[in-house]
Amino acid sequence: MPAETVSVTGWGRTAPTTARLIRPRTYEEAVTAVRDSGTRGSIPRGLGRAYGDAAQNAGGAVLDMTGLDQIHAIDVAGGSVLCDAGVSLHHLMEVLLPLGWFVPVTPGTRYVTVGGAIGADIHGKNHHVSGSFSRHVVSLELLTADGTVRTVRPATALFDATAGGMGLTGVILTATVRLQPLTTTLMSVDTERATDLDDLLARLTATDHRYRYSVAWIDLLARGAATGRAVLTRGDHAPLAALPARARSAPLSFRPARLPAAPAYVPEGLLTRRTVGLFNELWYRRAPRARSGELQRLSAFFHPLDGVPHWNRVYGRGGFVQYQFVVGHGREETLRRIVGRIARRRCPSFLAVLKRFGDADPGWLSFPVPGWTLALDIPANLPGLAAFLDELDAEVATAGGRVYLAKDSRLRPDLLAAMYPRLDDFRALRAELDPRGVFVSDLARRLTL
């Protein structure tokens, strides 16, 4: 099984480290790769969409699991799929949508693997209804540090440590996942503007229960009375009767639009407060004040950035930091204070979204808790960014909130226990399951996971 020494980074393109990249193509090769990890250990990796250092392992091995990408069985009547962990959500959609089934949860990109979806316990626009991805996993096969393949099911300690465990309990080989039925691949979408953050929170609180999917783009450069103004987009899968006659002949077609890739080289300083402020103003103004029932392609509603390959290059060679946190219901004042601080700091973020989370999921390191989550992209070379985000971390932790490990690249380890109360349980299980530290990552070293 060949290995090559490569520079590995997350989607944010910050802090690259060098590792041996190994691409197993059979389960037996995966077992061999784990057993031969060496003193610096190994970490599984999917399509590289974790923003930070969760799938990096400086001086060790990185196991590229995308070579294990078979769909083994589909229960068309019951709505479930058994597949390898290296299968992407994009491929699942290609296969499942014509059969009238959709993945139960998808983040803002469909280019993540099933193993990555479980390891990061991804969430989407429907968390307030459907929870995170692992809630829909019936069972999985996990290759642990001793070379054993274990069948792991929900409501067990090993499942709860693996869901959101960032690949540190073992290598997921296969998973059986329940699916979401649909009759068309179009979405019926309602769009409205919110004049400020309080208006946005009020609209979400009052009416979010009417929608399966909900998200708000938020203008983090707006200040004064407009602080937190937003464009709220919500919807559900369109029924067949809502389609125009010309679309009813192929209601389950899936043809995502694709634009030219971002250039390999983007000049530094493209995303400034001025350019991003102009974009945000135009984006807010062009949005309808209120529009109901617009039909959108599924790919446009869920994954608009997937239409631009390598969009992360627009931040230049310095890359970007994605910062995502959640605070619980009743902690809206913390959210207001953080949004106000970001606006006054003039952070040039044009990719900023706010969502409402539903019930927490059982994963010990799973991110969502009931409340409000804000995610924003910030150029990594912004002066004073590290100290500023450290201050926000402290506010989030004080409010009982947490940051998302799948997107983190710079959290201080002393705040982790306050954010994740089951951290000691996770560490204890890892110590028992993997006493030699076979599974390790740059994230795990940085946060002493």
Helix content: 10-25%
- Intertermini distance: 29 Å
Q: Which value, in Å, is the CA radius of gyration?
A: 21 Å
**General form:** globular
> Based on helices, strands and strand pairing, what is the structural class?
alpha+beta
- The total count of helices amounts to 13
Q: Which strand-content bin applies to the residues?
A: 15-25%
- Which parts are unreliable, with pLDDT below 50 for 5 consecutive residues or more? none
For the biggest β-sheet, the strand order reads 15-12-14-13-17-18-16-19
Total strand segments: 19
Major beta sheet summary: 8 strands, antiparallel
| Mean pLDDT level | 95
Write the layout of secondary structure elements.
Layout: E1 3-8, E2 17-22, H1 27-35, E3 42-45, E4 61-64, E5 71-75, E6 80-84, H2 89-96, E7 101-102, H3 114-119, H4 127-130, E8 137-143, E9 149-152, H5 157-162, E10 171-178, E11 180-181, E12 186-194, H6 197-207, E13 213-218, E14 230-237, H7 273-286, E15 290-297, H8 298-302, E16 320-328, H9 332-345, E17 352-357, E18 371-379, H10 385-398, E19 402-403, H11 416-419, H12 423-433, H13 442-447
Parallel strand pairs: 2-4, 3-4
Antiparallel strand pairs: 1-2, 5-6, 6-10, 7-11, 8-9, 8-10, 12-14, 12-15, 13-14, 13-17, 16-18, 16-19, 17-18
